[in-house]
Amino acid sequence: MFSGKTPIRAVLFGAAALIMATFAMPSSDVAFAASEVKVVVNNSVITSGDIAKRVNFLKLQHQKGDLNKLAQEQLVDETLKRAEISRVRMSVSTSDVDSAFGRFAASNKMSPQQLGQILDKMGVGVDHFKSYVAVSMSWPRVVNARFGSGNANRLSNDDLVTRMTENKTKPVTTEYFLKQIVFVVPAAKRNAILNQRKSEAEASRAKFPGCDQAKVFAATMRDVSVQDLGRVLAPDLPEIWKPMLEKAQGNTTSPVVTDRGVEYVAICSQRQVNDDVAAAAVFRAEDIGKAGAQGVSANDKKYMDELRSKAQILYR
Fold it and tell me: What is the pLDDT of residues 178-229, one digit of tens each?
């Protein structure tokens, strides 16, 4: 399916206070005592230094309560998530995280270097912050892969009829038929050829002959693949593609860098639909949005409860 990622604004809810906090709080730029192992999660350790950095990060978010306990439990969850992300091989790339870091800095009118200096000053550190971002961006992929097409997110026929009766009319959404054009960039060559591949992808858009000839077109270029995504309803689009499809000029979106290389989406067709499948997609998106506004989704909690039940967690 898509190679998408969660917008940094979503995974750093509350972190916009970071900039103002640097003026409102005393500096945490002090030497930490020698780190001690505080928790062992399976074979991974969480140290007092890790916990101290997370406590400082929580302070920047103006969290209240027992911050040491909250920091410790957050890090336990992240350790379990990181291991699961690695197991199913669904991590975002380092460049994805760096890009998100850069966007967050730019949104606060800073360079990445300036943001790094503030994080260091406040006792959080760039590596700790980026580790948090990487897990926050990767984890929704894992949850969606596990439950996205499962019964947990499906509406029964009775539920669907009830919702449509309550709404009086079937909701309307956009139906797309899409193909994904990927200019592959091997990890070993990423730094050397990424910019070149960006240029190649952008130049190819003006010559794109349409979806029917997409594979023939790709065969004329080096290391370009075509994936037929078929019918995709607007509520089911990954976050990375939604604004790009809305702003698309012609029959292709702008290219974007992903963990696979540089890619864009070709729009084979689009139209407004209000069939039962579309209605279910809209209602499902509404339910997910409500769950997200309330914090952790039911599927996320179910997944984490399962991981915790199987893990060996030793507190010291």
Answer: 999 999 999 888 889 999 999 999 999 999 999 999 999 999 999 999 999 8
CA 75 to chain centre: 19
Q: State how far the Cα of 304 lies from the Cα of 298, in Å rounded to an integer.
A: 10
Half-sphere exposure of 197 (CA within 13 A, CB side): 25
Is 295 within 8 Å of 10 (Cβ atoms)?
no
CA angle 303, 7, 254 (to 5 degrees): 125
Q: Are 316 and 39 in contact (CB under 8 A)?
A: yes
Tell me how far the alpha carbon of residue 51 is from its chain's centroid: 24
Residue 99 identity (one-letter amino acid): S
Q: What is the predicted pLDDT for the residue at 194?
A: 92
CB 83 within 8 A of CB 44: yes
User: DSSP 3-state assignment of 196?
Assistant: helix
Q: How far does Cα 146 stand from its chain's mean position?
A: 15
Between helices 126-147 and 112-121, what is the axis angle to 10°?
Answer: 100
State the DSSP code for 35. Answer: P
Contacts of 167 (CB under 8 A, 6+ apart): none
CA distance 131 to 138: 11
Q: What percentage of residues in the chain have a pLDDT greater than 90?
A: 41
Rg (CA), the chain: 22
Q: Say yes or no to pLDDT of 89 above 90.
A: no
pLDDT score for 168: 58
Pair type for strands 44-47 and 173-184: unpaired
Q: How many helices (H) and strands (E) does the chain have?
A: 13, 7
Convert the pLDDT of each residue in 276-292 to its tens digit. 555 555 555 555 554 44
Query: Looking at this protein, which amino acid is placed at residue 208?
Result: F
Report the alpha-carbon distance of residue 191 to residue 257 in Å, rounded: 12
So what's the pLDDT on residue 7? 43
